[in-house]
Amino acid sequence: MAEAENFIQAYIDEDLAAGKASAIRTRFPPEPNGYLHIGHAKSMFVNFGTAEKYGGKCNLFFDDTNPSKEKTEYVDAIRRDILWLGYRWDKEVYASDFFDTIYAFAEKLIAEGKAFVCDLSPEEIKNTRGTLTEPGVESPYRNRSPEENLRLFREMRAGKYRDGEKCLRAKIDMASPNINLRDPVIYRILHATHHRTGDKWCIYPMYDYAHPICDYLQGVTHSLCTLEFEDHRPLYDWVGIELGFSPKPRQIEFARLNLTNLVMSKRYLKKLVEEGTVHGWDDPRMPTLAGLRNRGIPAAAIRDFCARIGVAKANSECEIGYFEAVVRDYLNACAPRAMAVVDPLKLTVTNYEGEEDVEFDVNQTAEGAGTRKIKFGKTLYIERSDFSLDPPPKYHRLRIGGYARLKSAYIVRCDEAVTDGTGKVVEIKCAYLPDSRSGSDTSGVKAKGVLHWVNAARCVDAVLKRYDHLLRDADYAGQDFSERLVKDSEHVFAVKAEPYLDGAAEGEAFQLMRTGYYKTCREDGKLVLSEIVSLKDNFNK
Ligand code: ATP
Ligand code: MG
To answer: Ligand 1, from 26, 43, 208: best to mutate by most atoms within 8 Å of Cβ?
Structure first.
């Protein structure tokens, strides 16, 4: 067998060696109460990846025990996003598939004196739970007979009581140092319509009780979850032991993925959608998989990122810049280059007439990508910031009397700037050097600056969108999400793009020279260039 790549695999190896497990089965367990985010991609990487490593299987398990928050819309979105990311589950299973068995197990616990119906209110239960230093107080209903408990539990199921009026609690130990073992609630009354079982049930099992049962019934050998469940493991094990599960699934916890500048909580993401801060769950600024897909980020880059950050036992926060660097590596290798001018300034080549084809490199980093033809002409647009009347030191772009190369075409010399009444430059007039054509330059002139441009007679008007991160950076880490939220994080520009981009397939990724990686899309028939990731790599790998 290949060597363990992380501590989870080391545990599994132990279990295999000890004969505690044979065929490995894991599950990816989303609750269908929102869209998956990049944190879930890590969970998938761990669950699907571990199963694959051992030639095992991974189920898709919908943890749908909380009907008031769950919807079929989310189930559909979750399935779509997992498939997009490139994972294939074995069985698709729902906690609600097992509601009958979960209920029968509860009656078994009652019959054996291991669970009781409690009339304390949720508030009273919370207040009698004790603290880390003080034991809890036993419920006055703790010693009801199994017969009475069974009758009451059946009445709960039959709908005799209101929400919160009664609940079923495991009878464990109110003095346990682990608060989760202090007679935890395992069933609650909730008169709510479930997205799959409708109104069949008005009592629902709690996560900590249902999860080990569902794992066992699916044949899960290793239940891989995030660290916040570490304190719940004793309860997970209690359920398995008391119900006599054999072989009992093993819960192993790993660190959550946290990324700077991103919110990783479905609850908060939902708030952003509902309050209109973003356009929807798939807004390109969202850390949801739907958002990342819409942003133009390749699924393979996300999987690769998860593999590179690894699986650890301790929580930490990963720089968003690292994720972006991985994405940039992918796009750099495959995205064709193109030109668009964000803040156009007219450039007239005074000594040039007509037009001609010049050869533009499709992607210098991709071997064999070759060139494509673009039309050079008399009237062009360049970036306003590529000309200065009063250039700072080391300015290699255009100035009066200065030279620069127009990408793939000629070196030009700027002779004159035309200003309007307010002194704003509205046009520059340049002369081109006929013997400076790219690839056959014999001019002898050194032009350090290479500028991108578009042909004014052929370019198309497009909309370019740039995005800020949703949250301010790590310096604000302790603060509440709403305080860190960047309010206006979408920036829209009217730009001039080469006609080639207008003919590109919807959703294609380009490197807009000197601007960034952008994806093409259409809004009301108009070309939109939507930022995937900036060009600047400010992350030190
Ligand atoms: P959220 O807090 O965003 O709602 P959750 O944990 O409630 O997340 P679930 O749908 O219950 O969301 O998560 C499914 C699985 O994904 C769980 O096993 C959970 O531990 C895991 N998971 C959720 N967020 C992360 C994360 N940031 N990093 C790694 N795993 C995660
Ligand atoms: Mg959850």
So the answer is: 43
